[in-house]
Write a structure and sequence with these properties.
Length: 299
């Protein structure tokens, strides 16, 4: 005879085994383990001055949430123990309404939301703050399904001469940036909404078609350390959305100048930024954007 268990116990056992298996499967990824170890905080210190503010908001939000969590879990277990049913023939006091308590648990969450809102807006203002004369201007084009980075060349204003690096769905482009400089990104899309995301900078922003000139979405970063970062599109933008990857290299200012000259020597130079992508003519939906570009740039 095999082991006889009540139906219910069998079902509970099966559920537990399934749950445990899922947990183990989920946790066997090294990246997941590393994330758990650092409490889901970013892996490295962020690469820009602006990102420091975001990292602080992230960290202190965690602290506030943990304190709230510990308090709530503590109360749950304390109440469950303190007011448990102590015998078969006696039911603990059943409380139906408690006005002061209800007022308290309405006001406390509202207060918490107000505090989070205040700090979110404060950090957002800092992150979106722009100086009038950034050191470097990069006009970023997101197109289905890659990126073109137009670096203003010499003293050219936005919309003027650029050296560019254009990716395709099969070639990942690199965004080269100088360290210790304030860089402005102006974002253009000739087709659909994309999102320009550099996780290492803790920053992303939507790239919206139809915007041009000064009305484009833009933000500035002040790089603080040399290094390699990864970038990607964070808005599901079509079939090959997942191929919209790019690399970010933050290099010394001298290396940045050298990069610009190298790009120019290779012929990646244009009188106006490429806002429809280098392959605009061959990629569906981009020909129109290119024709705007060749007959006088943005409307
Ligand atoms: Cu995209």
């Amino acid at each position: 005879m095999g082991l006889q268990l009540p139906k219910r116990a069998q079902r509970v056992g099966l559920g537990l085994a399934l749950g445990l298996t899922l947990l183990l499967l989920g946790a066997c990824n090294a990246e997941d383990k590393a994330q758990a170890k650092r409490w889901a905080m970013p892996a490295n210190s962020p690469g820009t001055e602006q990102a420091e503010h975001i990292a602080d908001l992230w960290k202190w939000a965690w602290v506030a949430l943990l304190v709230t969590g510990v308090l709530v879990w503590g109360l749950i277990f304390w109440v469950a123990g303190r007011y448990r049913r102590r015998s078969e023939d006696e039911i603990p006091v059943q409380t139906r309404y408690n006005l002061p308590l209800e007022v308290l648990y309405t006001i406390v969450p509202i207060f918490a939301v107000v505090v989070f809102f205040y700090w979110t807006v404060t950090v957002q203002d800092k992150v979106l703050d722009e100086v009038d004369n950034p050191d470097v201007m990069v006009e970023v084009t997101a197109q289905q399904w890659s990126w073109t980075f137009n670096h203003s060349y010499g003293d050219a204003e936005p919309g003027g001469e650029v050296v560019y690096e254009a990716g395709t769905a099969s070639k990942i482009p690199t965004l080269v940036l100088p360290v210790d400089q304030t860089i402005e990104f102006k974002l253009s899309s000739p087709d659909v909404i994309h999102s320009f995301w550099i996780p290492g900078f803790l920053m992303k922003m939507d790239v919206i078609p139809g915007q041009s000139g000064e009305d484009r979405n833009s933000f500035q970063v002040t790089t603080t350390k040399e290094g390699t970062f990864m970038g990607k599109c964070a808005e599901l933008c079509g079939t090959y959305h997942a191929r919209m990857l790019f690399n970010v290299e933050v290099v010394s200012q001298a290396d940045y100048q050298k990069y610009l000259e190298d790009q120019k020597a290779q012929g990646h130079f244009a009188e106006q930024p490429l806002l429809g992508g280098a392959d605009a003519a061959t990629q569906k939906g981009l020909a129109e954007a290119l024709s705007h570009h060749s007959d006088g740039g943005e409307k």
